[in-house]
Design goal:
By secondary structure, the chain is of the alpha/beta class. 39% of the residues lie in helices and 21% in strands. It has two domains: 2-108, no CATH class; 120-236, Rossmann fold (3-Layer(aba) Sandwich), CATH 3.40.50. Helix 5 (90-108) crosses helix 10 and helix 6 (120-136) packs across helix 7. It starts with a helix and ends in a 5-residue tail after the last strand.
C-alpha cells in the first residue's frame, strides 16, 4: 500500500507542480514526549504513556502529520527525498506516513492528522460502539493493537472481541476484561470476525496484509489519515486534530 501511495503522490507532485526541494522536518529523536503526544488523559495505560511506541511528527509548510512507530529517529530532508526513500524499515515507513499525513493535510485539507489529547481519548472511546453498531450492527470484532479505552468501550457495550497486540507485556494478560492474544493470531482472528478494527500502525510496520481476509477493515487513529483519504479506507478518529 505504501508503494501505491508513493506512486500517487509522485503523480500528483508532477501534475500539480509541487516543489520537491522544500524541506520537511520529522521530529522524534527527542521523541514527542507523552504529554506532547497525548496530553494528560484520564488513564495511564495508553501505549504512548507506557513507552512501547512513540509518535513521530512531520511538518510540511504549516501542516502537521503524525504516525506511531516503534523505531524512532530523526530525519531532515526534502519532500523529494521522502518520496523517493526506500521503505524497508519501520523508521523509514513512519517518516513516509507522517510526511504523507502532513502533505495531505497541506494540499487536500485531510483532517485528524494529529493525536487527540487530555480528555479527548475517552470521548473518542465512548463514540465507538455507536459508530460500529450504526454501520455494522453487532459484529464479531477482531481488534488489532491494544488501545485500552477503545477495547473497554466495546467490551462494556457487549461486543464479542478478540484482541491482539505486539507488546509481549500485554500478551496473555487480561486487559479491560478481555484476554490479549499474540499478533501471530491476527489472520486467524480476522477470519473468525465479521469486521476488523486495526491500528494504523499495521500500515507502518507492514503487517496489514495478514488482515486481508475478505472482511471490512476499519483503521483507527491518526496514522492512517492520509492513506485512508487516498484509498477510501474506512477510518475511525473522532477527536483527532
Amino acid at each position: 500500500m505504501l508503494e501505491e501511495a508513493r506512486g500517487e503522490l509522485l503523480r500528483r507532485a508532477a501534475e500539480e507542480k509541487w516543489d520537491e526541494n522544500e524541506k520537511i522536518f520529522v521530529v522524534s529523536a527527542r521523541d514527542l514526549t507523552p504529554e506532547e503526544a497525548i496530553g494528560r488523559p484520564d488513564r495511564d495505560d495508553y501505549p504512548l504513556l507506557k513507552g512501547k511506541e512513540v509518535m513521530m511528527e512531520a511538518r510540511y509548510r504549516d501542516a502537521v502529520g503524525q504516525a506511531y512507530t516503534d523505531q524512532p529517529g530523526r530525519f531532515l530532508g526534502t519532500l523529494g527525498e521522502v518520496l523517493h526513500m526506500s521503505l524497508n524499515t519501520n523508521f523509514r515507513r513512519a517518516v513516509f506516513v507522517a510526511t504523507l499525513n502532513a502533505v495531505m493535510r497541506n494540499f487536500y485539507q485531510v483532517e485528524a492528522t494529529v493525536h487527540c489529547k487530555d480528555r479527548e481519548p475517552a470521548v473518542c472511546a465512548r463514540s465507538l460502539p455507536a459508530f460500529i453498531e450504526k454501520r455494522y450492527g453487532r459484529p464479531k470484532i477482531a481488534f488489532v493493537g491494544l488501545q485500552p479505552a477503545l477495547v473497554q468501550s466495546l467490551a462494556g457495550a457487549g461486543f464479542e472481541l478478540r484482541v491482539t497486540d505486539l507488546n509481549p507485556d500485554n500478551v496473555g494478560q487480561t486487559r479491560c476484561g478481555v484476554q490479549i492474544g499474540d499478533a501471530a493470531l491476527n489472520a486467524e482472528n480476522a477470519r473468525w470476525a465479521d469486521i476488523v478494527l486495526a491500528t494504523g500502525s499495521v500500515l507502518v510496520n507492514d503487517t496489514y496484509r495478514e488482515l486481508l481476509q475478505g472482511k471490512p477493515i476499519i483503521y483507527y487513529g491518526v496514522t492512517a489519515a492520509g492513506l485512508a483519504d487516498l484509498f477510501a479506507l474506512p477510518r475511525f478518529c473522532v477527536c483527532g486534530r
